[in-house]
Structure formats: structure tokens, C-alpha cells
Specification:
The complex is a heterodimer of chains A (94) and B (491). Chain A is mainly α and 94 residues long. Chain A has a domain at 5-40. Chain A has helices spanning 5-14, 21-38, 73-77, and strands at residues 83-84, 87-88. In chain A, strands 1-2 form a two-stranded antiparallel sheet. The radius of gyration of chain A is 22 Å and the shape is flat. The model of chain A has no long low-confidence stretch (mean pLDDT 93). Chain B is 38% helix and 12% strand. In chain B, helix 9 crosses helix 12. Chain B starts with 12 loop residues before the first helix and ends in a 12-residue tail after the last helix. Chain B has a domain at 5-262: Amidase signature (AS) enzymes (Alpha-Beta Complex), CATH 3.90.1300. Chain B contains 15 helices and eleven strands. Chain B has helices at 13-21, 27-45, 53-68, 110-117, 160-167, 184-190, 224-234, 278-293, 309-324, 343-354, 357-370, 375-399, 422-426, 433-438, 466-479; strands at residues 48-51, 79-83, 121-126, 173-177, 193-196, 217-221, 264-268, 297-301, 402-406, 442-450, 453-460. In chain B, strand 2, helix 4 and strand 3 (121-126) form a beta-alpha-beta unit. Chain B has an eight-stranded mixed sheet with strand order 4-6-5-10-11-9-7-8, with helices on both faces. A three-stranded mixed sheet of chain B has the order 1-3-2, with helices on both faces. By secondary structure, chain B is α/β, with parallel strands linked by helices. Classes of the chains: A mainly alpha (94), B alpha/beta (491). The interface between A and B is large, with 52 and 72 residues.
């Protein structure tokens, strides 16, 4: 097993994912297999190779910094689980 | 009416367009016929997440009026379905996930808007692997899709719902997305045609992101001609997609008459290594003979880093996935856990409950390869190998016009067969992933059967060579009938 339970807990926390105790063994097992699998890349000779930034070698397009879209707040917030007076509600943070 | 409406489902998009135009049947009759077929056959397939019957009937009536008024657009009244990760205004857009199981999009994806304004009638939204992460359609929150050729088999994934619906003659065409093979592999496994265009050819706006440097939209149809018709409408520059390519869209239909004489087809040595089912290999060799007999030359080429494409992909794609999926926070849209203790608990439980096992694995793989101390060893390394894979394709296309080979290593596998081992599932995409990493276009088309299941021939071309791929596929379909084969019970 290339990953420990502790490592997987740490990765899950970084990813903001709550794992149930019942799924933990399976996650450790499968994630370890994936990491072992991608580890074969280490043997590939890549000295002097420029990492690919874009498949077509293009750069990001720029546009003038002017308003081009309007947002219908009500329509957008219709999908929000909890809103009041146009604000998104979250548990108290301060 | 000169055509029996009971047989409209067997016609291709091109044939249907002619029939509507010449008044042999109405768009409304066609829509009603297909909605009845969906009602009858979908329970056994689970290809749809949402059927938009009422809207479809209204669009069909509008199409008939447009024809009567003499201003019918190019796809007037032609039925289509959308993979459920294309945003559709006012319609559920779930991505096959519990996370978005009640998300109603406030706007249309560019692909959806372009097809709609060209007169296409949307019949519904199709099932898929959750957030397009899967190769078998088994990771969907809404349950797996059955393959119409054998219901115990997978239709492939992630665009398995669109592929199954097209194969079962419930609809002549469906949109899909392809990040590592998600259009081409299900097309191969269901005996349909699936094209993934060049990266940047079709807008990604409104297409829920999985891995942004690899994702590309395309279509699944029953003929190359139909794919050419739809791609002509879907492709083209879109200001709203920052990686959209500003290049004119050729007339794909006009390119379909080019003879194969003089065409150089690359045969990849590594494609026929162990791992390819012998019967599939035989079908591929037979189809290459058909092309050779028409005047094409077969040339052996190498893709030396082919084997590294899958591990490269499983670093790059999860890395981009982990960034893209961070938008699901239980606050702005999507699933929210009940009674959170604090903000961290809200994030962690909303995401833990909202995402399925495969999506969580990919988010965590991506988080791991991007985390402090591992970035250079995994992500940067993978982007270097990706550059080598891109060079392999450039070298090959210095010698040949297109590359031809298998789409998938085996015909449709059994549902449940590969779910225990993620690596076995991942390796199913070995022949398709390279084109995503290098940004090249690819198409899969039916080329025969193995154990009564369809086999797909894949053609890959240089950047922006969609015309060539569609033409070669069309020429092959003029010489063969594999694309006309219909699964039993769906005639």
C-alpha cells in the first residue's frame, strides 16, 4: 500500500471531502493502486523537455476590461440551497 | 403522407431532413413517434435522465410553422438529445451526479444554443458517468445504462446514454463530450459514429468542466454524413470560451465526396500489441483492407509513448478535475449537507455526500499530485511526457494523412466486470486518450462484430483535420453496411 490511512485523511481534508469510516479502506486501496500506476511516469526520460502548456501551443486570449455580461441574481440564486435577501447563507464564521 | 410514421426512427438525420423539407412527414409527427419510442424502450435502457416531451412538441410545431413560412433553418425539426452536462436553460442539468440532482440551468450552453437556433428539437438529456468520470456509465447517480446490443453489457462511457439512445433508434443523434475517449469509446461499444473534434474547435461554454485542457464536445450519430451536418453547426469561435479557436469552419458536408486514392493511412505498430482482443484486431485489419482496396496506402508508424498516455492522463485529468470540482461548495448551487457544525463541516459533508466514489477518487488523486512536494514529481513530469506524446503525433502526421486503428481493446464488457479495479477500467481508454492529450481530432465508426457485439474503427487526424476524418469515414460507409446494423428488438 503506497498510501497510509493518515495520508488519505490528509488528502481528503485538503480536498474538503468527508469520508465515512466504512469507505476508508476501499479509498486507501484504490488510491494506492492509482498512485502506483502513475508512478511508472518516473522512469520516462524527459530531460530538457518543455512541459506542455496547451495542446495547440496557444496563449490565453485577452479582452478589454469592460462589462460584457449581466447577471440575473434571482435566476442564479434559484439554484442556491439557502439564500436570504439576495445573500448566500453559511454557518457563522466569526 | 408517403412515409409510414412507424418507421421514421430508422432514418438518419440526413434522410429525416429531406423528408421534412419535402413535406413527406411533419416535425411534429417525427417528434411524437420518437417520444413514443423513448417511452417504450427507455425503461429497459436507462439512457435518459430527463425527457423534455412538452418542450420538444412545442419546438416541433415551431419547426413546422417555419417550414410553412419558408424560413426553415438548416436543422429544422431534426431531433437530438444532449448529454446531461450541457447546460439547458430551464431544464434539469445533473451531470449524472447527486450533487446536481436538482440543478436547473439558468442558461444554454453554446452548443445547445447553436443547435436550437438551427432548428433542432431537443428530446431530452441523457445519462452519463458522474461528471463524465468513467468509461462504463456505471458511476452515474441515476444508475447504469444498458447496451442495446446486450443489456448485460456496458454501453461504454462517459457519453453512454447518448450512444445507447442513438444505437437503439430512439433518436438519430446525441451530443457528447470526450476528455479521454468518452465519445469514441461508447460509439465503438454501441455500433454508432462518434467524433471528438480538435481541442478548441467546439465551444466549451456551458459544458460542465471536468478537465479543461482535454474536454471537447462532439456528436454521436449513425452515419459520418450526419456527424458532418451537425459539426458544421456546432463548431466555430465563441468569445465566451477562452480556449475557443478563431478559425473558419469548413463545409464538412462538401468535403465528403473526396476519393481515397492517394490517401496515406498510418497503422500504429503499438496498437496491435498484446491487449487488443484478437477478434477486434481481425475486424480492424479487414476494414483497413477495404480502405486499401479503394486506393489508400497503408504505412506503418510508431507512437512510442502510447503506453505512457494512460498514466499521463491519470495525473493531468485528475489535477484539473480537483481544481474544477472545487466550485461545488454546498453554498451557491448543488447539494448541501443538513445541519452543518461549521463552514468546514458544510464543505466536507456536502461534497462527501454529493459526490460518488469515482469522482472522489479523482479529486483526491488530483489533490495529491498537486500538493506541496509532489507537484514536480507528478504534474510537471506528466506535462513533459504529454509533450512527448504530442511530438509522437506530429512525427506520425509528417508521414501520413490519418492514423487508423482500434477505438477500444475489447467489445462491450459486462456491467460490473471492471468496477473493482480502477486501473483495469482506465486501461480501456488506451487507444483514445492520446488524441485528447495532444488535442487531435478522432472519430470512431462501426467496422463489424465480435461475439455479436459491435467493433469500432478509430481514425485520428492532425489538428483541424475533421474534414478528412469525416470523409474517410463516409467513404468507408459507402462501401460497407456495418453502420446500418440495428440491435435486435429495436428495429
Amino acid at each position: 500500500m503506497s498510501l497510509t490511512k493518515d495520508q488519505v485523511h490528509h488528502i481528503a481534508l485538503l480536498a474538503r471531502l468527508k469520508l465515512e469510516e466504512s469507505e476508508l479502506d476501499d479509498v486507501v486501496d484504490k488510491l494506492s493502486r492509482i498512485v502506483d500506476f502513475v508512478d511508472q511516469l518516473q522512469a520516462a526520460p524527459t530531460d530538457g523537455v518543455v512541459p506542455m502548456a496547451h495542446p495547440l501551443d496557444q496563449s490565453q486570449r485577452l479582452r478589454p476590461d469592460v462589462v460584457s455580461e449581466t447577471i440575473d441574481r434571482e435566476a442564479i440564486q434559484a439554484n442556491a440551497p439557502l439564500v436570504r435577501d439576495g445573500f448566500y447563507l453559511v454557518p457563522k464564521v466569526l | 403522407m408517403s412515409v409510414d410514421s412507424r418507421s421514421l426512427h430508422v432514418l438518419t438525420l440526413t434522410e429525416l431532413a429531406r423528408g421534412i423539407k419535402e413535406g413527406e412527414f411533419s416535425a411534429l409527427e417525427l417528434t411524437e413517434t420518437l417520444l413514443r419510442r423513448i417511452e417504450a424502450h427507455n425503461p429497459g435502457l436507462n439512457a435518459f435522465i430527463t425527457v423534455t416531451g412538452e418542450q420538444a412538441l412545442a419546438s416541433a410545431e415551431a419547426a413546422d410553422k417555419a417550414r410553412a413560412a419558408g424560413n426553415a433553418p438548416v436543422l429544422n425539426g431534426l431531433p437530438i438529445v444532449h448529454k446531461d452536462l450541457f447546460c439547458t436553460s430551464g431544464v434539469l442539468t445533473t451531470c449524472g451526479s447527486r450533487m446536481l440532482s436538482d440543478f436547473v440551468s439558468p442558461y444554454d450552453a453554446t452548443v445547445v444554443a447553436r443547435l436550437k437556433s438551427a432548428g433542432a428539437v431537443t428530446l431530452g438529456k441523457t445519462n452519463m458517468d458522474e461528471f463524465a468520470m468513467g468509461s462504463s456509465n456505471e458511476t452515474s447517480w441515476f444508475g447504469p445504462v444498458a447496451n442495446p446490443w446486450n443489456r448485460d453489457r456496458s454501453p461504454g462511457g462517459s457519453s453512454g446514454g447518448s450512444a445507447a439512445a442513438v444505437a437503439a433508434r430512439l433518436v438519430p443523434a446525441g451530443t457528447g463530450t470526450d476528455t479521454g475517449g468518452s465519445i469514441r469509446q461508447p460509439a465503438a461499444l454501441t455500433g454508432t459514429v462518434g467524433i471528438k473534434p480538435t481541442y478548441g474547435r467546439v465551444s466549451r461554454y456551458g459544458m460542465v468542466a471536468f478537465a479543461s485542457s482535454l474536454d471537447q464536445a462532439g456528436v454521436i450519430t449513425r452515419s459520418a454524413e450526419d456527424a458532418a451536418l451537425l459539426l458544421g453547426v456546432m463548431a466555430g469561435f465563441d468569445e465566451r470560451d477562452s480556449t475557443s479557436v478563431d478559425q473558419p469552419v469548413p463545409d464538412y458536408l462538401a468535403a465528403l465526396g473526396t476519393p481515397l486514392e492517394g490517401l496515406k493511412i498510418g497503422i500504429v505498430r503499438q496498437h496491435f500489441d498484446e491487449g487488443l482482443d484478437p477478434q477486434c484486431a481481425a475486424r480492424i485489419r479487414e476494414s483497413l483492407e477495404v480502405l486499401r482496396a479503394e486506393g489508400a496506402t497503408l504505412v506503418e508508424v510508431d507512437l512510442p509513448n502510447l503506453e505512457l498516455s494512460v498514466p499521463t492522463y491519470y495525473v493531468v485529468a485528475p489535477a484539473e478535475c480537483s481544481s474544477n470540482m472545487s466550485r461545488f461548495d454546498g453554498v451557491r448551487f448543488g447539494h448541501r449537507a443538513a445541519d452543518p457544525e461549521d463552514l468546514l463541516d458544510l464543505y466536507c459533508r456536502s461534497r462527501g455526500e454529493g459526490f460518488g466514489a469515482e469522482v472522489k477518487r479523482r479529486i483526491m488523486t488530483g489533490t495529491y499530485v498537486l500538493s506541496a512536494g509532489y507537484y514536480d514529481a507528478y504534474y510537471l513530469k506528466a506535462q513533459k511526457v504529454r509533450q512527448l506524446i504530442g511530438e509522437d503525433f506530429r512525427n506520425a502526421f509528417g508521414q501520413v494523412d490519418v492514423i487508423a486503428g482500434p477505438t477500444a481493446p475489447t467489445p462491450a464488457f459486462a456491467l460490473g466486470e471492471k468496477t473493482d479495479d480502477p486501473i483495469t477500467m482506465y486501461l480501456n481508454d488506451i487507444y483514445t486518450i492520446g488524441a485528447n492529450l495532444a488535442g487531435n481530432p478522432g472519430i470512431s465508426l462501426p467496422c463489424g462484430f465480435a461475439e455479436k457485439l459491435p467493433v469500432g474503427l478509430q481514425l485520428v487526424g492532425p489538428h483541424f483535420a475533421e474534414e478528412k476524418l469525416l470523409n474517410v469515414a463516409h467513404q468507408y460507409q459507402l462501401l460497407t453496411d456495418w453502420h446500418k446494423a440495428c440491435p435486435g428488438g429495436f428495429e
